Amino acid sequence: MAPPRSSAALPLLLLGFVSSVRADTVLSAPLNVTIRELGVNSAVVTWEILEGDPVIGFAITQQKKDVHMLRFIQEVNTTTRSCALWDLDEDTEYIVHVQSISMGGSSPPSQPVLFRTPKESEKMAAKSPDEVTMEEVGQAAQLRAGELIIIVVVLVMWAGVIVLFCRQYDIIKDNEPNNNKDKAKNSSECSTPEHPQGGLLRSNV
After folding, report:
1. Cα–Cα dist 49/27, whole Å
2. Which tens digits make up the pLDDT trace of 75-122?
3. Which residue has the higher pLDDT, 143 or 63?
4. CA 22 to CA 24: how far, in whole Å?
5. Are 121 and 100 in contact (CB under 8 A)?
6. Which of 29, 83, 138, 195 is spaced 20 to 30 Å from 132 by Cα?
7. pLDDT value at 6 more than 60
């Protein structure tokens, strides 16, 4: 007869299996959280994750320093390791945490990152003369297009004026001989014929 199996072995096996599953699904906190492309009203957060972590998304907590109100950003089904922060206030300090998301839950938050947005005047002063933003390039292109349109319109108007002047000049030139003939004819018809001096007196004598 076989000895009876211990009923305590089954719970221990199940506990070990659950512990191994939980250990496999626990995520590490994101590493090397960095603020890049810092602007007056925007910034970009970048981070890294441990290789092998089953990450399917991220969550970012944004908070003004000394202010309790939080802004929460979450995105899943993505492998991106960066996120843009918008609508920031200039000359303001912010604190950012990043968490990784998996099918089993979220990782612990990363180490907090503190940064300050610059003032508009500081950003303009730090901007080099050769640095041109895409917005400025677009504005310059629009100005050039508008200037070209104005130049073309002016040239077309001048061409039309010149053509009209040439036609009027040709018409006047063609009519000038006829006008001279008419003037000569009118002057000859209006002139009084000369009579011999004393002609009527001689005939009466």
Report:
1. 9
2. 999 999 999 999 999 999 999 999 999 999 999 999 999 999 999 888
3. 63
4. 5
5. no
6. 83
7. no
For the chain, state the CA radius of gyration.
Answer: 48
Tokens (6 digits) for 87: 């609508």
pLDDT in tens, 7-30: 444 443 434 433 444 445 588 999
Q: Is 55 exposed, middle or buried (0-12, 13-18, 19+ CB in 10 A)?
A: buried
